[in-house]
Design brief:
Strand order of the largest sheet of chain A: 3-2-1-4-5
Structural class of chain A: alpha/beta
Oligomer: homodimer
CATH architecture of chain A: 3-Layer(aba) Sandwich
Number of helices of chain A: 7
Helix content of chain A: 25-40%
Largest interface: A-B, 44 and 44 residues
Distance between the termini of chain A: 43 Å
Radius of gyration of chain A: 17 Å
CATH topology of chain A: Rossmann fold
Order of helices and strands of chain A: EHEHEHEHHEHH
């Protein structure tokens, strides 16, 4: 990752563990960070409150939340109340928590925002290790989006290339947690659970909770997550 | 364009002349058409009413409108009330009516919807002739998006490729109007103007009105547009 003193970046911030780490990486690398979150009809709206906390704690320059009516197209356990969140370990294939084309959509809006800001870098916390079942978390997808971005925009046409930065893409969850801890990330501010209770406490049994628990255990770092008693 | 009896397609429908023609082309080619429009904070909301009329007249299977808070990122005369709509012919470069990354964003959401529907085709009315100043209206952009789409989705991963269809991309406005007229499109239902009045009457002087007027003149077909007196 190149150092970039005074360069601006858009950082996609979900309120989860990964994107909190990405914000810390972008700040370490010298970017002025414009955090961007989405209200896309996700069940776990408590994520948006977490995103606001993380943006502030992580010294983002500002934080915007874009409304995006993805609930209207359905198709995922995370946006469609008729599809249950799975509570067992994934058995292969693409999980029901996959939101169709989500990362394509989020990166596309981030690209528009980057163009408005004149920012040349977009950071996203995708991870191909734990989320290998999601097609839009793989390195080939990120490379293809970067190529598209430079055909799609004024900046690309005018010779100011846009870079899509996915600094976690090849790290394990334990490695991500070690990296973020070294950079001072307070993971108690983050929410990973797909179905937190109204107080923000995690279920402990969805895929996302499972990866998070195993990550803290593997990193040998105390897990600050509040789990609800079931 | 291949005939596709009983295949489903997502058709991006703005309420303007081009996308009304695209819907007619998709219907001619045998697709069951799921029309998709966006409420993205555009000034010309009257477009959405036109889109609903066009979807119905064009025998779309259904019509959805997705909320998308692009006004929150600003940067275009079409979504930002602080930027005036230009009223003179473009003088080169990218016009102020360009919405940053708009077609990337619209195609990304259409891709998610296509995945939910199991549709293998997405139709978009981009045009590289009149709108050559918009980077995301060029054939290279469409080809790059199609490539991305097949890396980004469950369908792509599972060997059911997604096709991005841009049947107007190399046609002049007059050719588009002749094509649509042959297919029975009622252009009096459509709105192209960037700043219509509350009754839907066109200004007659913005770039979009100018292209439309010249198109009807070139096609030697009577222009059904209602222009307001200025």
């Amino acid at each position: 990752m190149c150092a970039a003193v005074n360069s601006s970046a858009v950082v996609l911030l979900s309120g989860g563990l990964d994107s909190a780490t990405v914000l810390a990486v972008a700040r370490r690398d010298g970017y002025a960070c414009h955090a961007l979150s989405f209200d896309y009809g996700q069940r776990h709206r408590i994520e948006l409150e977490a995103a606001a906390r993380v943006a502030k704690a992580g010294n983002a320059r500002d934080h915007r939340v874009i409304t995006l009516g993805l609930g209207d197209i359905g198709g995922s356990a995370l946006t469609d109340a008729n599809i249950p969140v799975p509570e067992n370990a994934a058995t292969g294939g693409i999980p029901m928590t996959y939101v169709p084309a989500r990362n394509t959509i989020l990166l596309a809006v981030a690209l528009g925002y980057a163009e408005v800001l004149g920012a040349g870098d977009i950071f996203i916390g995708v991870n191909a290790v734990d989320y290998s079942g999601y097609p839009d978390c793989r390195p080939g997808f990120i490379a293809a989006f970067e190529q598209l971005a430079n055909l799609a925009t004024r900046a690309g046409v005018e010779g100011r290339p846009v870079h899509i930065r996915a600094p976690l893409i090849r790290l394990s969850k334990a490695e991500i947690i070690r990296l973020g801890t070294d950079l001072g990330v307070d993971y108690s501010l983050t929410v990973s659970c797909y179905q937190p209770d109204p107080l923000g406490r995690a279920c402990g049994v969805c895929d996302s909770c499972r990866f998070r628990r195993e990550g803290f255990a593997g990193a040998e770092i105390p897990d600050p997550t509040q789990y609800r008693v079931r």
